[in-house]
Design brief:
Layout lengths: L2 E4 L9 H5 L5 E7 L5 E5 L10 H5 L5 E5 L2 E3 L5
Antiparallel strand pairs: 1-4, 2-3, 4-5
The chain binds iron/sulfur cluster (2 copies).
Length: 77
């Protein structure tokens, strides 16, 4: 099953991934990271398509996508 990993300590809370996810399954945290930002969270993992859009649009390379046994990050695109 596809999924994503968000590194909350690299996330700056810009919400670009929240708007970009076609499934609408990324939302912002209610607490803050060590950098002082609200950070992105995957709230319905079972609905993730593994499409990688969130990772592609993230300006801080804070998201990795796991799909079909492979971990994708920005440098793979
Ligand atoms: S991989 Fe696609 S479906 Fe899954 S969280 Fe990212 S944008 Fe949404
Ligand atoms: S696009 Fe990246 S930096 Fe912006 S909220 Fe999402 S994970 Fe955080």
């Amino acid at each position: 099953m596809p999924g994503i990993r968000i590194d909350k300590n690299h996330c700056k809370g810009c919400e670009i991934c929240v708007r970009a996810c076609p499934q609408g399954i990324i939302s912002m945290s209610k607490d803050i990271s060590v950098r002082g930002y609200f950070y992105a969270q995957l709230h319905e993992p079972s609905r993730c398509l593994g499409c990688r859009i969130c990772a592609i649009v993230c300006p801080d390379v804070a998201i990795e996508v796991l799909a079909h046994g492979t971990v994708f990050n920005l440098i793979d695109y």
